[in-house]
Amino acid sequence: MDDAAKTERMDAYRRICRDQGLRITVQKRAILEAVLDLDNHPTADQVYESVARVVPDISRTTVYRTLEGFARIGVITKACHPGRSTRYDPRVELHHHLICLHCDAVIDITDTGLDALRIPDTSDHGFEVRDFRVQLRGICRRCQTKDRKEKST
Amino acid sequence: MDDAAKTERMDAYRRICRDQGLRITVQKRAILEAVLDLDNHPTADQVYESVARVVPDISRTTVYRTLEGFARIGVITKACHPGRSTRYDPRVELHHHLICLHCDAVIDITDTGLDALRIPDTSDHGFEVRDFRVQLRGICRRCQTKDRKEKST
DNA sequence: AGCTAATTGCAAATATGTAGCGTTAAGAAC
DNA sequence: GTTCTTAACGCTACATATTTGCAATTAGCT
Q1: Rounded to whole angstroms, what are the CA distances from A88 to A16, A101, B7, B96?
Q2: Which CATH number fits domain A93-152: 3.30.1490.190, 3.40.47.10, 3.40.640.10, 3.40.50.1970?
Q3: Which fold has domain B3-79?
Q4: A23 to chain B, minimum CA–CA distance in Å?
Q5: Using 50, 70 and 90 to split pLDDT, how confident is the model at A76?
Q6: Chain A to chain B, count of Cβ pairs less than 8 Å apart?
Q7: Mean pLDDT of the residues in chain B
Q8: What pTM was computed for the model?
Q9: Within its chain, how far is the Cα of B75 from the centroid?
Q10: What average pLDDT does range B23-44 have in this prediction?
Q11: Out of A82, A119, B72, B128, which could bridge B78 as a Cys pair, Cβ 3.0 to 4.6 Å?
């Protein structure tokens, strides 16, 4: 993410913290910067690896706790994925995902056609829709070439 | 799932196993029956709990391994979800999901409007699309009432 | 009935995430 | 800038969710 966008996001984060009486620490700032720079929908541990290069003695616990908190107050989101560990998404606005069914990669796509989707009525489920994501499921480039290699051997 | 549909699915499974030289065991049959009966997009452990009532001395390892195998050969699918453990979906055909951002519930919805989505071109990502899901993200009925209670106390 | 390799179950290892708790420090009040 | 309150930190231990290696078993072909 470019610097201007990051500054904007950091400002938004500051406003939310002020409103809710939350404190901004060195650790939280570093975690937010790290996750804004990662575009692969990282797990908490991947964020930890990245932050630890900047704040070497940060605790894993803090990273896990902070990411959960960020998602709760809407500073980041959680990505829906087919795998076994929570994945975070720095993007909060409407966008969509390519999902690799071999390696569980989550890849961002933007498409106005998808954005324009008419959301059906869900009142019979008593479900309150906040937003939506379209997930195109299939095989990513890397796994396609990998699979070809494995078959040819 | 009703008996006719289950029989059909079991037959499809038999064909796949024959074609690929896989063996059908008491355990695998029980696991497939269990997962076809669960409509809440269960985790491997939830499937284990269910199967264990029918085959008491089945191993957890077998359930985990078998579900992975089922998904690989396309007998079932994996559901995309925001949580931290893999969730399986007995449905393999096109359908969509309501995703609760509080409790991670995954609820099936069917809507021809969503099915008719025009899938954008993904060739610039080198991504081969197999199918898609629309996920409506929000708050489920149960969590809405729970939240109201918590706020009023 | 015999054979072969897929499959199972066990035990132990590895990921992933959380809770409890004493210590530190952000940021408001003065 | 000092003080004060309490959010947040980091540690350790715990909890949960899988995975791996391997010896024993068994489905399904001949």
Answers
A1: 19, 18, 40, 22
A2: 3.30.1490.190
A3: Arc Repressor Mutant, subunit A (1.10.10)
A4: 23
A5: very high
A6: 132
A7: 95
A8: 0.94
A9: 10
A10: 98
A11: A82
